[in-house]
Each structure stands twice: as structure tokens, then as C-alpha cells.
Structure prediction request, 169 residues.
Amino acid sequence: DLVEKTVTIPVFWEDGVLAGIIGRYINPKRPKNSRYKVYGFSKGSLVFPLDKLEVKDDTIILVEGVLDAIWLHQLGFTNAVSILGNSMSKKQAEIIISKCKKLICMFDNDEGGEVALELTKKKLKHSGIVLYNVEYPENKKDPQECSKEEIEEMIKNKKSLLFKRLRRL
Prediction:
């Protein structure tokens, strides 16, 4: 998009129909929470890339950003999807619940990733989905910074997130 100065990525519904476009601003100095422009759809209405999602072993890998999901797909992790930010919508939760029984949260290794994890736990608390979290290799902040071998190791060493129930007295 020459007007907005973004690299554009088409986004499709599960049936392959175009939902809209996501534009990624090129300027690296742009604030973190305003790096994308969404054209033609609500980003909370789907996960990306819904049309390319291949659930494996009843498991989905969930990331924050579009580029993280693209990177994982390029590495062969076709069960990876993005929530297009760090906040899962009700519709995104419904999509995930309908597709898998296990969810590996591979959110960024930063404050935004911690927010995404907590919000995801709240959204999926009563869903029956088993949640996992990963630990990043030292000095790595997101999936794009990791090699295929590092991603495989993160998945292998994932940790289950148990929902804590307080006993009533």
C-alpha cells in the first residue's frame, strides 16, 4: 500500500474467501501497538491464517503476530495461528475451541506476551482445552528470532498451565 506505506498481507476466511488485508507498517520507529493496519475486516473475527490451518495431534500453536504465524508456517508448523495482537476476542476463542483440544501458547517473550497469556487463560478457562506455555531460548523474544530446531525444543519442553481452583470453605 503506497499511500499508507505498508506491506500488505491478504487474509482469508476458512473457506478461502478473502476477508480483507493486513498492512504492516515499514517504519521500524513506529510504536509497537500501531504497527498494523487492518483493511476490510475486524481483526477479532478470525485467526490468521485460518485458511491454511492444519491442526496436528489435536494441537494448535498460538502466537501474537501475523509475521510470527507466517514464519512458523514456513518452518513447517502449519498448526500455528495468530490472534493478530495480544488480546483474544470471543470469536477467536470460539474458533480455537472448535478446532483443538490442546493449545501451545507461544506469545512473545515480553510484557505484551504476558498480557496475551493471561487474557487467553481467562478466555479459555472453562473450555476444556489444555493450555501449554513455552520458554524461549536466552536472548530470544519471539518466534521469528528462533530457528526450527529452537522452536521444536520449545514445543518439546512446553509446560502445562493448570487452572487453579480455590476451595470454598
